[in-house]
Amino acid sequence: MNILSSLYTTTPVSRMSRSLVSMFLLGIFGSLPALAGTHLNAEKNLSYSNRSAKEALSKELAAKEFLAKEALNFASIDSYAQSVPQHIATQSISKLTAYLTKPALNDIEKARAIARWITSNIAYDFEAASSEKYRPSDNADSVFQNRRALESGFANLFVRMMHIASVETFAVNGLKKGFNFAPGDASTLKRHTWNAFRTGGKWYLVDLPVYKEVETDGSYKLAYADAFFCIQPEQMVFTNFPDDKRWQLLSEPITKEQFLTSVQCFGAYHGYLITPISHRDYEIFSKPRSVTLSFDAPMALQLGARVYAEKGAKEQHASIKTLRTGRTFTVHIKFPAEGAYKLEITATELIRERGTSEVVGCSIKTVAEYNVNIGDKQPRSMANISK
């Protein structure tokens, strides 16, 4: 089961409940200053500078709990977006957008309906991605007609549809850590495009393209990383690095070297809404054999660890202790001897019988990886950012 799509599957709330929830929640993202750059000033950029303060205040400010899908999920919106009549879905971008956003109570629900339709109906062009000669058009009209695109095509169609829905939206260009990323090596990064939209004076980040989810038997299926819809900037910065640092939406933007040497995060890391507190770098150096890491993690989540002498080697016997204090989860590892180790942080989610408290199983995912050096070694910079 895809943990990203199965996570937080709570009972759908009514439209009235969603409205009440959205009215009292406080936004978490800071406003972005006026931005320069040709990629920010799209030719069809709408003018929002004349919006009245009253209109801006009328938009809900969604809180972290809202976006974490623990207080509200998008089951009904997703179902609606995935059941658009064929004659509407193929008529025009404008009519499709009007249909998708008609039941939306706010701009976040508009964005969700549009994002869900795009990820359900536009295929990622893996053939074009692996070709050095063929590059499909990333024009929104071409993407809508051909139903295939690369990253920029997904982003441009989202921009077009959000503008039609009167929501300020941009395509953000930058770098992303892909499946072949090697911590510290800039040559293993890939060019990428994602989106940012603003509502109620706050900016939200969305990364749309589908990806290949590899099964245990080596086969794969196409999936969409739902955690990248309105992902928190503090989490996005571990995988996506914008060309313009202001799109990090952080009060203290990180450098490219910090991005390259940050902890290696996997899909479930974002799906579980985990954020490191103590160790943000991939490389850990410790003279003592004991290392303690702390994370911010949802209350329902149990974190753990696995230790390997090297990648692909047999798991090592290490003493592992965990402690939770509120949302802070601490993992204490005592390594068997001096040397270099691969440390995997795991997340365990209990699976309960629907409608009951009975535990029927659990799901364990590797969410992050560190390279730990135990012994008398000095920290060093591992980043190769010249490529």
Descriptive report:
This protein is an alpha+beta fold. It folds into 2 domains: about 5-260, no CATH class; about 285-375, Immunoglobulin-like, CATH 2.60.40. It contains 14 helices and 18 strands. The protein has helices spanning about 5, 15-25, 55, 65, 75-80, 85-90, 95-100, 105-120, 125-130, 140-145, 150-165, 235, 255-260, 265-270, and strands spanning about 125, 150, 170-175, 190-200, 200-205, 210-215, 220-225, 230, 240, 265, 275, 285, 290-295, 300-310, 320-325, 330-335, 340-350, 360-375. Strands 8-5-4-3-9 form a 5-stranded antiparallel sheet. Strands 10, 12, 14, 17 and 18 form a 5-stranded mixed sheet that branches. A 4-stranded antiparallel sheet has the order 11-13-16-15, with no helix packed on it. Strand 4 and strand 5 (about 200-205) form a beta hairpin. Helix 10 packs across helix 11. The longest helix is centred in the first third of the chain and has 15 residues, at about 105-120. It is globular. The two termini are about 35 Å apart. Residues about 1-70 have low confidence and may be disordered.
Can you tell me the residue ranges where pLDDT is under 50 for at least 5 consecutive residues? 1-71
The helix tally amounts to 14
Radius of gyration: 22 Å
Task: Give the class from helix and strand content and strand pairing.
Answer: alpha+beta
Count of folded domains: 2
- Sequence of strands across the biggest β-sheet: 8-5-4-3-9
Distance between the termini: 37 Å
- The oligomeric state of the chains shown is single chain
Shape: globular
Describe the sheet with the most strands.
5 strands, antiparallel
The total count of strands amounts to 18
Which range does the strand content fall in? 25-35%
Mean pLDDT: 78
